Amino acid sequence: MTRRRIAVLMGGISAEREVSLATGAQVTAGLRAAGFEALPIEVTADLAGLIATLTALRPDAVFNALHGRFGEDGCIQGVLDWLGIPYTHSGLRASALAMDKVATKAVFAAAGLPVARHVEITPEALAEADPLPRPFVVKPVQEGSSVGVAILRPGDNHRAEIARGWRYGRMMAEEFIPGRELTVAVMGERALAVTEIATHLPFYDYEAKYAPGGSRHLLPAPIHPAAAAEAMELALAAHRALGCRGVSRADFRYDDTAGEPGRLVLLEVNTQPGMTPTSLLPEQAAHCGIAFPALCRWLVEEACHGR
After folding, report:
1. 14 near 65, Cβ under 8 Å?
2. With bands split at pLDDT 50, 70 and 90, how would you rate the model's confidence at 286?
3. Which fold has domain 5-89?
């Protein structure tokens, strides 16, 4: 029996290139352990070269291990649709929606899901005045992995500095929700578990996510059972509202400052969850008895059957 050939797209040209390379390396090993012929492809700015490589390889499917812009915002999904190659994770529409935080919040609000107060702004407007009462969060509209995220608290004088140094495209401000950081992975039509992410750093930023020792994952999250059940329900509802496919990961703030069960606020959905050694999705899958090679296999089979 001929082994199926799976091209693993990794790297890319976003700010999350290094994370994608780590994800791609782990996925390649996982696919090989699952019995596939895994062919890693390091993606660069040479789109014509990528198309030529995929055309020559003629893979049975693509495992999309790209992160950030051009990898999870619908761009590469459109290319793969054009080429007629099945691929893992969400399609063009859901990917584009989920990567745009303003559009995502509009979809969530329309579906009755809890979101934080927010507003899209410009760096010039931020330099002039606070767009929301402090504390508030400044973040890119179309980046992931907490790239460019900053919190402005009462007494901080970094607003003008953040505005001057902004290089992440569209900008938004969002109400800061006190409490804890929670996340829930969804696999198909199943919410896997609730993880609390604890960090000694000021907030769950890029370093906290990817540096060794940057954060601790408490699985299952030590929260009220009613809050845990609600988080899993909301994660699945968000996955469906965006039209996601395969796996996704919903991130929440959990305000338990007045006691438990507290208030859950849905921040965003990641349609390309990381699959590095410190990533949350593989950890939750393992907690549910799904080994990493089996997770990789399921993603490929779901991609092929979903076409």
Report:
1. no
2. very high
3. Rossmann fold (3.40.50)
